[in-house]
Amino acid sequence: MTHRRDGGNWGSWGDLLLTSVFIAVVSLALFWMAAFTLWWQMHAWRTPEVLASTRFSSPDGDEHVSFSLLLPARHEQAVLDHTIQRLLESTHTDFEIIVIVGHDDPETAAVANSAAERDPRVRVVVDTHEKKNKPKAMNTALPHCRGDVVGVFDAEDQVHPELLAHVDHAFRTTGADVVQGGVQLINFHSSWYSLRNCLEYFFWFRSRLHLHAQKGFIPLGGNTVFVRTDTLREADGWDPNCLAEDCDLGVRLSSVGKKVVVAYDSDMVTREETPGSLMSLLKQRTRWNQGFLQVYRKKDWKQLPGFGQRLLARYTLMTPFLQAFSGVIIPLNAAVALFLDVPVGIAFLTFLPLVTAAVTFVFEVVGLHDFGKQYGLRVRAVHYLKLVVGGPFYQVLLAGAAIRAVWREQRGRNDWELTSHVGAHLTETAVIREDVPA
Amino acid sequence: MTSTLPAVTTTVPAQRQPAPETGSAGRTTPPSRLRSSHSDLLLCGLLLVAILVVQGWNIADYPTLSDDEGTYLAQAWAVQQGTGLAHYTYWYDHPPLGWIQIALLTWIPAHFSPGSMTVGTMRLAMLVISAISAILVYVLARRLSLPRWAAGLGMLLFGLSPLSVILQREIFLDNIAVMWMLLAFCAAASPSRHLWHHFGAGLAAAASVLTKETMVVILPALLVTMWRHGHRDTRKFALTGAITACALIGFSYPLFALLKGELLPGSGHVSLWDGLKYQMTRPGSGFILDQGTGSFGVLHSWLYYDRVLPLGGLAGALLLLVTWRWSVTARSLAGPALTVAILAAVAMRPGGYLPAMYVIGALPFLALVLAGGTASVAHAVLRRWRHEGERRYVTGGRYALAAVLAVAAGAYVVPHWYDGDHTAVTADANAPYRAASKWLSTEVKDPKDTRVLVDDALWLDLVHAGYRPGLGVIWFYKADLDPAVTKTMPHGWKDIDYVVASPTVRRDAVDLPNVKAAIQHSTPVATFGTGADRIEIRQIQRETVGAE
């Protein structure tokens, strides 16, 4: 009836105990990590009221806020004009577009200048920094901004004409210092990783970011972000040495108690495309991770008043590395449980992280369905299949990017790795540009 | 973390819009937090006290100790002892979660007073379950938009029907499973329509099924409740979340078997597969409406204790299902009504096996549906077609009619229930058991080396009296069915010293050769009680065999 191990062999018994405790601790840590991530990822869908509150409310027709829209462009002569024209179609009546071009980039400058000649709302600022990056470019333009609010877009963004009116309304009705609009990758059908990439954006902008806004700690996105000009000047603009200057700005502003509002409407998001190759996705992700790591080390988040807020900050900025760690350890852990002779109870614990992983998978499948519905896109069975099968591989990619980021940061390599984009939503191809961290 | 409202910090989500209502709103919307409603708390508290008094008083002595109670409590004892999931080989007869919970529930008293771990005493633990279930019935009724009085009526029906009083006193897995299922329904009908409440409903439902596997048939009704209480925009996440949660927890049972290497049948070990096969191929007890079948007998034993709740509830369920189109109450009670309908349909299947405790799963839903039906009738009498300028005598007539109906119902129900509950709080059905336990504890000289066949209800008493658990004091049927026990009895009945012939043992001995032989080759040395309910302690007569 009772099973007892043969006595006398204390050494192996001790080993077993050690293994069991180790497995239990790792499993529980992984479980809680995954559970919290899942909890936050599903924030927007917690109740119908929360979901309703994540949207822009309809503008009342009144317009009081003036905008300066920054459009940093580097070797983007192919798409820039289209983007400017679309921005000019905006229904809002009071805005200027400041195109920032490099002094060493005459092609883009030519496109920008010709647009400026055609429409007085367009102005061109030349960035003369020897080594160029996006924060430096935007800082160059900041003194030239005349509007109450500075907005940031990328040269290949498709911006909804009514977005500015909605943002104006949001500023006026909420008294916000910062408004973050939604950004959405759309081309989920391009490849297995773009499917996952799109869904990452969907969960991030649709859901998780709202939780951050609510909790008072928010890493901002790289575009469709609007900041009151005086707030931005007070904060000395963007950090030119940070690889995730957008995240950094959000962390600095929210750490000193600025009010950030996030709004997501599927027809109001800025549409983008995923990186054109797996390698460029890896590079892009490496840069974000490295940026997150830099923001973590800058310690601005330590000014946050609440302990919970600081914990959330710590956790969020460390996420890429925790992700890398868990991606490796979850399968290892399960294998240990299956092949080593551990007690049934302990073996059970090792399945806990798999349980949360399974729940996450299911919610991702439902999320993909919702994504299709929201954007009127046809999601086929094969896409669901790709989503599930691609999951572990994407984990490997994320883990690779995280490890690469740590390695680069250790080696002091913090130059910008450029990500090349295929203009899938435009006709022109092969534009080199710096990408937008989410 | 759980707050759905924005923290009062500098940052809140942009705009807060009320989500549009779906059609589930009843005419009496319950307060968003029952906890802060004094009248709800007071009513629920008073009813709870009444229920606990009636259920708790005389709990050890009535009804008769059942063999199954002994089984589960003994297995809970084994869990507490750390000897595994049972003191005999666990053979996947039921998922073990039920008696693991009993073990947890009785852990503290059993720790301080090991001798209290007997069926009679530990029925007190079931009061905790009954109390939680009764409160959940009230909460669920309010969440399903029943008016306060109807919620109270539901709780009363659930807690004080003589049938409930008797069955809820017993240590049955079904009672615990019902508690979990009620919790699942309450979470499914959460007024905040919270994703994680629905997820929790899935978890609770899985706990219910793992406590008593028959609860699985109720899951569709739970899903309907969740659907009705979900919101268009978030429903797909809530429902898939709940289903996933339920399935994942449910899979832990086969996973447990897999980890123990007992998922599939093989030689030399038990398996989940065999356990399932046994449950699915149990000989049927006949069609419930065929006189003379076992199922018919079970039905009658229920109706003997109470007709109002089972029949009234069934009628209420039919009424609600028929008036679905017109009645708000019917729509809001769709879940419980469907549960009753499903359970009734399952009970009606010809050739199925109908255990006596089957009705336990239906009790809270019968009560809710009966209360809802009453509320529906009350609404029809008092409010339907009533307009602003209704003449006073018509309104008076409405109230008079309502009063007449209420008095008539009371006149029918109260005397019946008074009789039933009076028996429950006064009768002593277990004197023979107690006497037999005392005799075996005091009159047998060397319990340590004495081997006794007993029914499960007495087993723990004898363990406390010093008999060796498992092979000294033996669940009578193990002497025929468990190879681990039979191999210690090479000479069959001759290796036994006593057999305690309780009604259960006598009934089942027909199919158990060793037990039958033990009874045949023994003579009563002490008899307690009379007639069919008597308990005989029979000593095996070895020498007579030699003489023959």
The greatest interface between two protein chains, and residues involved on each side, is: A-B, 50 and 45 residues
β-strand amount of chain A: 5-15%
Largest sheet of chain B: 5 strands, mixed
Class per helix and strand makeup of chain A: alpha/beta
Please state the CA-atom Rg of chain A, rounded to the nearest Å. 24 Å
Mean pLDDT of chain B: 88
Quaternary class: heterodimer
Query: What portion of residues of chain B belong to β-strands?
Result: under 5%
Task: Write up this protein.
- The complex is a heterodimer of chains A (438) and B (548).
- Chain A has a domain at 14-53 and 176-427.
- Chain A is built from 14 helices and eleven strands.
- Chain A has helices at residues 10-41, 48-53, 77-88, 106-118, 134-141, 163-174, 192-215, 229-234, 245-255, 278-298, 307-339, 344-350, 352-375, 381-410; strands spanning 67-72, 95-102, 122-127, 149-152, 178-180, 183-185, 225-228, 260-262, 270-272, 419-421, 431-433.
- The termini of chain A are far apart.
- The relative contact order of chain A is 0.14.
- The model of chain A is unreliable at 1-8 and 420-438 (pLDDT under 50).
- With 548 residues, chain B is mainly α.
- Chain B has two domains: 34-385 and 392-426, no CATH class; 431-547.
- Chain B has a five-stranded mixed sheet with strand order 2-1-3-5-4.
- The radius of gyration of chain B is 26 Å and the shape is globular.
- Chains A and B meet through helix 2, helix 6, helix 7, strand 8 and helix 12 of A and helix 11 of B.
Topology:
The complex is a heterodimer of chains A (438) and B (548).
Chain A lengths: L9 H32 L6 H6 L13 E6 L4 H12 L6 E8 L3 H13 L3 E6 L6 H8 L7 E4 L10 H12 L3 E3 L2 E3 L6 H24 L9 E4 H6 L10 H11 L4 E3 L7 E3 L5 H21 L8 H33 L4 H7 L1 H24 L5 H30 L8 E3 L9 E3 L5
Parallel strand pairs in A: 1-2, 1-4, 2-3, 5-8, 6-9
Antiparallel strand pairs in A: 4-7, 5-7, 10-11
Helix pairs in contact in A: 1-11, 1-12, 1-13, 3-4, 7-14, 10-11, 10-14, 11-12, 11-14, 13-14
Chain B lengths: L37 H19 L10 H15 L15 H9 L1 H6 L6 H25 L4 H13 L1 H8 L3 H16 L6 H17 L7 H11 L5 H25 L12 H9 L13 H12 L2 H15 L5 H5 L1 H15 L14 H20 L9 H35 L4 H12 L9 E3 L1 H9 L8 E3 L2 H4 L1 H4 L11 E4 L1 H6 L4 H8 L1 E7 L6 E6 L2 H5 L1
Parallel strand pairs in B: 1-2, 1-3
Antiparallel strand pairs in B: 3-5, 4-5
